[in-house]
Design goal:
Blueprint (H helix, E strand, L loop, with lengths): L12 H52 L3 E6 L4 E6 L4 E7 L10 E4 L5 E4 L15 E7 L2 E7 L5 E5 L1
Antiparallel strand pairs: 1-2, 1-5, 2-3, 4-6, 6-7, 7-8
Length: 159
């Protein structure tokens, strides 16, 4: 009788290459899928933060009995909420690669790129075509629009 020959188990080079190629395809697909998710999420988060800042701006105007300005700087991708009479900065949001949230575009669709809440908490939207003001937040191909009324109540839609 011949002694049993033991063979060493393992994988061939071809098997390893096939597994690595399949892994690379799966990782690439996952990365592309997540990058789209992060773009959508960034625009949505920026819209939600702006909606909250509108509420804060109105509340501060009523509480402090001074006007509050929400001013957009579209070219540099940021906005600020400030009470100019007391020089109080309520909030400041920066966007883009070095900002709080990465966006590719920010726009307030109002003349002068600013919104003012008076001491009664009302914003003057008379210069607009309708009863709602809008602000747009874009990240890549994804845009969220915040529609708001003169009292700062808002609705967020993906456009």
């Amino acid at each position: 009788m011949y002694p049993a020959i033991r063979t060493q188990g393992g994988f061939t080079l071809l098997e390893l290459i096939v597994v690595l190629a399949i892994s690379a395809v799966v990782v690439t697909m996952g990365t592309l899928s997540f990058s789209g998710y992060f773009q959508r999420d960034s625009a949505r988060r920026a819209a939600q933060v702006f909606a909250q800042d509108l509420v804060s701006a109105r509340a501060y105007a009523v509480r402090s009995q001074e006007s509050v300005v929400v001013r957009f700087y579209e070219s540099t991708l940021w906005y600020e909420v400030v009470a100019p009479e007391s020089s109080t900065s309520i909030s400041r949001r920066r966007f883009g690669p070095t900002g709080d949230i990465e966006l590719s575009g920010v726009a307030l669709d109002m003349s002068g790129d600013s919104l003012v809440f008076d001491v009664r908490g009302m914003a003057d939207l008379s210069g607009l075509g309708g009863s709602l003001g809008t602000a747009r937040f874009s990240s890549g191909a994804t845009t969220y629009t915040v529609s708001f009324n003169g009292m700062g109540a808002s609705k967020i839609d993906r456009t």
